[in-house]
Design brief:
Strand content: under 5%
Oligomer: single chain
Largest sheet: none
Number of strands: 0
Number of helices: 5
Low-confidence stretches: none
Number of domains: 1
Structural class: mainly alpha
Helix content: over 70%
Order of helices and strands: HHHHH
Distance between the termini: 37 Å
């Protein structure tokens, strides 16, 4: 299974990039970050936004995050 995934990622770099970005967001949203300061959360989220600039498929996610940012940070 791992070999197949690696082969697909090798052939489709854009898919690998999107997967990495989604995993990065998943780590940001992890429960272990609960005690992290609001400033650190905001900074990390801003970095995530900048990483996703070139992926239009994530625009709706970014818009939703911006809309609810005060509630989640």
């Amino acid at each position: 299974m791992k070999e197949t995934v690696n082969e697909v990622f090798t052939q489709h770099g854009d898919l690998k990039n999107a997967y990495d970005i989604s995993q990065n967001f998943k780590q940001w949203y992890a429960y272990k970050n609960t005690p992290v300061s609001t400033l650190k959360i905001k900074d990390t989220l801003d970095k995530w936004y900048s990483i996703t600039l070139k992926i239009p498929e994530l625009d709706c996610v970014k818009k939703m995050m911006h809309k609810h940012e005060s509630e989640i940070s």
